[in-house]
């Protein structure tokens, strides 16, 4: 029924051609845009591009299209590359090592949020059907020497083509590459395979490291004092971006529930990464963004461990599919959608589930200094509409689907703003719970892990390599609330805090030491210059509160 059997060279050529013509549509689209804005290009150079990429693919594929390996190789490569192509084309996703890490560390529920009919159809027609065709293409049986001989010949031919193009258009190619560094990241499958290889070797093949304890000398500076115990809630947001917060000047009432609660909003805060798998471990790590190393962070005590060293009770309430290793040594309660909790349905729980969780924790905890982390599902896309209940559809029309490229940008923004509006309500209820506490003095710090693109410059979602990422993905909201008692007993100067919030350039790097300062943890690894609130604790009051053995950590600038 099918045509006469193919030699391996033709089989490989077909595969390479398919990658040039179909799988690399995102690259082609970008090249068209670039070439339209490039002057003085020769027609020959433009026409040589598909030939160049085809020859390079041919060479790479030839190494694998050999005997019994050829078909499985083609099938796996097609199935995976078609998905990469979809994400790149519709969402501008770049498959660097961090993105591979996100994929590997994503939980099934989160992954299902990306499934939709559009994706299924794309995969079917550009991945599955071609894979079936390549799986059943009749191959000519050849002797080993013949097969090797013909492979050698055709590979030499491909090298000649590449060299020929280089000889003719070297300058054009060089300037195209120099002016558009991101281009190599768009080539499928080379870039994602390279990133995956790098991820595997860094993550699984690196020699295991011994766990490194940090801050074992930690203690709460005024632990001996007769005072109310401190209770701080750290709310870890998901995918909330700074510019859509009303508290930061956004013209919509996305902070309708908290705007009158006396929260301070820090205006200029940048995230450590553009994706959860990078930002969350980095945020809790003592490492800064500049020297952040995921493997090191994983094998080092983090902020929560240091808090526990200081004798502070730490609890983690999880509603975002995982803490990325941060809460490994901390008592954790994860909300699973199938446990019949209220606010849980299908694949996810909405963030109100955390309110009951917090209440239960507070009832069960001892009257000790306490830190509770609430990890919000927040604004995780692309299914923004599943993050908020019907009653919080404040901005309409929203986008009721996960293939968000089929919604208008206005619908997408509406859905996204609804998630912020809903989480603002949840935050207001958390603050209400804290304000009611008579046994504790309470405070709350909210910070989001990274931002989100909502169609600006054709970009959606998040996870761009940091150097290329727009502000929408890296500028995050950070909010602080303190009860009057918490603020006054520790001598916070409200004017100073407001000034820091309005003017200081802050980042996730500041969270580690700010949290230590907030809980009055004294340790040799505390860096007062990184504690954004350190300048705002009034020396006299703190010293008075500390009139006991040891100096205040917050005031001892020589400790770091
Ligand atoms: Zn995230």
| CATH topology name of the largest domain | Alkaline Phosphatase, subunit A
What portion of the residues fall into strands of 2 or more residues? 5-15%
Number of strands: 15
Bound molecules: zinc ion
CATH class of the largest domain: Alpha Beta
Strand line-up across the major sheet: 3-13-10-2-9-5-6
Can you identify the CATH superfamily of the largest domain?
A: Alkaline Phosphatase, subunit A
Strand-pairing-aware structural class: alpha/beta
Give me the number of helical elements: 19
Q: Give average pLDDT, whole number.
A: 91
Could you describe the largest sheet, including whether it forms a barrel? 7 strands, mixed
Query: What CATH architecture of the largest domain do you see?
Result: 3-Layer(aba) Sandwich
Helical amount among residues, as a percent range?
A: 40-55%
What's the layout of helices and strands?
Elements: H1 8-23, H2 25-36, H3 43-62, H4 70-91, H5 97-105, H6 108-112, H7 117-136, H8 144-179, H9 190-203, E1 219-220, E2 229-237, E3 264-266, E4 268-270, H10 276-284, H11 294-298, H12 303-309, E5 313-318, E6 332-334, E7 344-345, E8 348-349, H13 353-364, E9 370-375, H14 409-436, E10 440-448, E11 453-454, E12 460-461, H15 471-474, E13 478-482, H16 484-489, H17 494-503, E14 505-507, H18 511-518, E15 521-522, H19 539-545
Parallel strand pairs: 2-9, 2-10, 4-14, 5-6, 5-9
Antiparallel strand pairs: 1-15, 3-13, 7-8, 10-13, 11-12
Bound molecules: zinc ion.
């Amino acid at each position: 029924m099918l045509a006469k059997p193919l030699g391996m060279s033709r089989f490989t050529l077909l595969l390479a051609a398919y990658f040039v013509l179909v799988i690399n549509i995102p690259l082609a689209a970008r090249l068209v845009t670039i070439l339209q804005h490039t002057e003085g290009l020769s027609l020959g150079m433009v026409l040589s591009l598909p030939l160049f990429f085809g020859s390079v693919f041919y060479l790479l594929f030839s190494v694998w299209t050999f005997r019994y390996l050829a078909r499985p190789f083609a099938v796996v490569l097609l199935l995976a590359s078609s998905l990469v192509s979809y994400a790149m084309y519709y969402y501008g996703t770049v498959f660097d090592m961090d993105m591979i890490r996100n994929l590997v560390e994503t939980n099934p529920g989160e992954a299902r949020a990306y499934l939709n009919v559009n994706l299924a159809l794309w995969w079917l027609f550009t991945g599955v059907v071609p894979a079936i065709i390549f799986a059943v293409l009749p191959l000519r049986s050849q002797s080993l020497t013949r097969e090797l001989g013909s492979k050698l010949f055709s590979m030499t031919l491909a090298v000649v083509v590449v060299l020929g193009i280089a000889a003719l258009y070297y300058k054009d190619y060089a300037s195209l590459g120099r002016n558009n560094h991101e281009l190599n990241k768009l080539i499928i499958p080379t870039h994602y395979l390279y990133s995956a290889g790098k991820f595997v070797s860094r993550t699984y093949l690196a020699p295991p490291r011994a766990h490194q304890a940090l801050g074992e000398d930690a203690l709460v500076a005024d632990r001996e004092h007769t005072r109310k115990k401190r209770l701080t809630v750290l709310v870890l947001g998901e995918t909330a971006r700074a510019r859509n917060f009303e508290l930061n000047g956004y013209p919509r009432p996305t902070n309708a529930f908290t705007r009158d609660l006396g929260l301070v909003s820090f205006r200029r805060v940048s995230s450590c990464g553009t994706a959860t798998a990078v930002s969350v471990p980095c945020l809790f790590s003592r490492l800064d963004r500049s020297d952040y190393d995921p493997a090191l962070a994983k094998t080092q005590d983090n902020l929560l461990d240091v808090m526990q060293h200081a004798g502070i009770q730490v609890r983690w309430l999880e509603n975002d599919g995982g803490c990325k290793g941060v809460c490994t040594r901390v008592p954790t309660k994860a909300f699973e959608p199938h446990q019949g909790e209220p606010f849980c349905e299908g694949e996810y729980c909405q963030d109100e589930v955390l309110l009951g969780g917090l209440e239960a924790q507070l009832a069960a905890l001892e009257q000790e200094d306490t830190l509770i982390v609430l990890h919000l599902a927040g604004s995780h896309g692309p299914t923004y509409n599943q993050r908020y209940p019907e009653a919080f559809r404040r901005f309409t029309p929203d986008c009721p689907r996960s293939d968000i490229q089929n919604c208008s940008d206005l619908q997408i923004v509406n859905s996204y703003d609804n998630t912020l509006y809903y989480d603002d309500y949840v935050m207001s209820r958390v603050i209400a719970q804290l304000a009611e506490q008579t046994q504790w003095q309470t405070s709350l710090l909210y910070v989001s892990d990274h931002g989100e693109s909502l169609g600006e410059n054709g970009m959606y979602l998040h996870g761009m390599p940091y150097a290329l990422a727009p502000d929408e993905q890296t500028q995050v909201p950070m909010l602080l609330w303190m009860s009057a008692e918490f603020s006054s007993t520790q001598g916070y100067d409200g004017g100073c805090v407001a000034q820091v919030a309005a003017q200081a350039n802050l980042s996730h790097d500041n969270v580690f030491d700010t949290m230590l300062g907030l809980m009055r943890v004294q340790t040799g690894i505390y860096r007062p210059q990184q504690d954004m609130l350190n300048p705002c604790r009034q020396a006299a009051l703190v010293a008075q509160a500390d009139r006991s053995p040891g100096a205040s950590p917050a005031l001892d600038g020589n400790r770091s």
